[in-house]
């Protein structure tokens, strides 16, 4: 792969976007970025604090600015937040500026991977499993809409998934 195309990882929380993204970037000798981490770094605050103070709408505005900026780079692996696809602009930025990889996972696996994580503001409710199911109904069709590659991550290691992404990208060219 002579030219380094951007690779954007999308999918629900708990799909492994950050872990797989780091692995993929290392294997391809590319820079790894996580849009949620960049938002926290620039705001000087955790995402849950941003949600508390600005609400989800305020957070999504920040996310849109960051994704627009980061996707204009070259040769990056970008892990996006699970809800980033809610914005039509984000979907356009992602699909126009790189290869979009949808990391798919079951609600059961999401629940298992996120149940002890207190840094996910949308899951701080009485019934986080129901929240995950509701989010999947809304977001999964949006992930599908812009995905160039789709991979199931439930029972696979980050290295295996990263290797599969590289193989599938070679087939796209």
UniProtKB/TrEMBL annotation:
Name the positions where substrate binds.
Answer: 36, 60, 82, 139
InterPro entries to which the protein is assigned, alphabetical: P-loop_NTPase, Shikimate/glucono_kinase, Shikimate_kinase/TSH1, Shikimate_kinase_CS
Catalytic activity, reaction form: shikimate + ATP = 3-phosphoshikimate + ADP + H(+)
The record's top EC class is: transferase
Q: Please give the GO cellular component terms listed in this UniProt entry.
A: cytosol
| GO annotation, biological process | amino acid biosynthetic process; aromatic amino acid family biosynthetic process; chorismate biosynthetic process
Its annotated pathway reads:
Metabolic intermediate biosynthesis; chorismate biosynthesis; chorismate from D-erythrose 4-phosphate and phosphoenolpyruvate: step 5/7
Keywords per UniProt: Amino-acid biosynthesis, Aromatic amino acid biosynthesis, ATP-binding, Cytoplasm, Kinase, Magnesium, Metal-binding, Nucleotide-binding, Transferase
List of residues binding Mg(2+) = 18
What is a GO molecular function of this protein?
shikimate kinase activity
Q: Which Gene3D superfamilies match?
A: P-loop containing nucleotide triphosphate hydrolases
Q: Any idea which positions bind ATP?
A: 14-19, 120, 156
Q: Where in the cell is it found?
A: Cytoplasm
PROSITE patterns, per database record: SHIKIMATE_KINASE
| Subunit relationships | Monomer.
NCBIfam families reported in the protein's UniProt record: PRK05057.1
This one is known as Shikimate kinase
Q: What is the lineage of its organism?
A: Bacteria, Pseudomonadati, Pseudomonadota, Gammaproteobacteria, Pasteurellales
């Amino acid at each position: 792969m002579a030219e380094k195309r951007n690779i954007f990882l999308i999918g629900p929380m708990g799909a492994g976007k950050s872990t797989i993204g780091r692995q993929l970037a290392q294997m391809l000798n590319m820079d790894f970025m996580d849009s949620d981490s960049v938002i926290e770094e620039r705001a000087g605050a955790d995402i849950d604090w941003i949600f508390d103070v600005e609400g989800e709408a305020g957070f999504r505005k920040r996310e849109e600015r960051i994704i627009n900026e980061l996707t204009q780079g070259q040769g990056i692996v970008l892990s996006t937040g699970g809800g980033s696809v809610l914005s039509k602009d984000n979907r356009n930025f992602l699909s126009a500026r790189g290869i979009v990889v949808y990391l798919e996972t079951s609600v059961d696996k999401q629940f298992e991977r996120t149940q002890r994580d207190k840094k996910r503001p949308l899951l701080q409710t009485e019934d986080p499993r129901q929240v995950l199911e509701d989010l999947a109904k809304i977001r999964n069709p949006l992930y599908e809409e812009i995905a160039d590659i789709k991979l199931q991550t439930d029972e696979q290691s980050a290295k295996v998934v990263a290797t599969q992404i590289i193989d599938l990208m070679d087939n796209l060219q």
